[in-house]
Amino acid sequence: MTHGHSIWFLIITACVVWYSTITIYVAIKGSFDIREMLRDLRGRDDAAKADAAKHSSPPNSKDKTA
Question: What is the pLDDT of residues 27-65, one digit of tens each?
């Protein structure tokens, strides 16, 4: 299979191993980053809903000034 072309076989093998390693690393790291971003967005959404509920509540009868 590699008669006279062993250097090319080694180079291609090294490239495939390197590419596979980088791909797996990026996939794992990216999944953690995406989870963190979604957690942050969920927190912002909850805070926005709480803020909207605070501002949209009807005024209390004691607070009315005429």
Answer: 999 999 999 999 998 888 888 788 888 877 565 656 555
Prediction pTM value: 0.57
Element at 4 (helix H, strand E): none
Per-domain residue ranges for the chain?
A: 18-51
CB 9 within 8 A of CB 2: yes
Give Cα separations from 51 to 29, 40, 44, 47, 66 (angstroms): 33, 16, 10, 6, 27
For residues 62 and 54, give the distance between their C-alpha atoms in angstroms, rounded to a whole number.
17
